[in-house]
Amino acid sequence: MIKHYQQKLAAILTFTLLSCSAPLLLSANALALENRKPEVATTEIAPLIAKLKSTDENELKATIDKLVEIGSPAISALIQALKDADVQIRARAADVLGRISLDSDLKGVPSEAKIVVPALIPLLKDSNPEVRSSAASALGGIRAEAKTAVPEFLPLLKDSQAGVRSNAAFALGGIRAEAKAAVPLLIPLLKDSDADV
């Protein structure tokens, strides 16, 4: 008879425990699903990279937004796009990498920043000012993790294009203390002939 009561008590305790914890488990699973990024096939990324040369503003905006939404899985394809012969693709790939870094807080993910920063640095010497400007802006978004680029920014502070000078100054501001060496070159920019700098 005692065994019967023990089994009954064990069943009641088990039922009570499960009924109390089940809603917590369900809500935790729902929250995890809500915050999870959708799975992306790598075959979906390549056509988006190709659309970076679109002249249709709506299509371009949708493409950039989709790549930013994809985030980290698109990084390796975007890094490859930085080497594309097309100026628009190089500039826009750098721009997307910068936006991903801001959205996903890449500055908090040093392993990804260690991949992106070295890929962007050569673009600071690109012959096209739009590419140089986009690369500087992207590195500025990565902030302190981009400190290895500081020596490459210094010549950009004297670039003939105001947008390049402005984005280089912005990037150095984001890098903060690690960019101390640039301060003497930043001071003359306060009196730059272009008000946007």
As residue ranges, the low-confidence spans are: 24-34
Shape label = globular
Distance from first to last alpha carbon: 88 Å
Quickly count the helices: 10
Largest sheet: none
Number of strands: 0
**Secondary-structure element string:** HHHHHHHHHH
Mean pLDDT: 83
- Classification by helices and strands: mainly alpha
Helix content: 55-70%
Quaternary structure type? single chain
Radius of gyration: 25 Å
Q: What share of residues are in beta strands?
A: under 5%
What are the defining features of this structure?
single chain, mainly alpha, 66% helix
Structure description:
By secondary structure, this protein is mainly alpha-helical. The chain has 10 helices and no strands. α3 packs across α5, α5 packs parallel to α7 and α7 (129-142) runs parallel beside α9. The longest helix has 34 residues, at 2-35. It is globular, with a radius of gyration of 25 Å. It starts with a helix and ends in an 11-residue tail after the last helix.
Short description:
This protein is mainly alpha-helical and 197 residues long. It has ten helices and no strands.
Task: Outline the secondary-structure elements.
Layout: H1 2-35, H2 42-50, H3 57-70, H4 75-81, H5 87-103, H6 110-120, H7 129-142, H8 150-156, H9 162-175, H10 183-186
Helix pairs in contact: 3-5, 4-5, 5-7, 7-9, 8-9
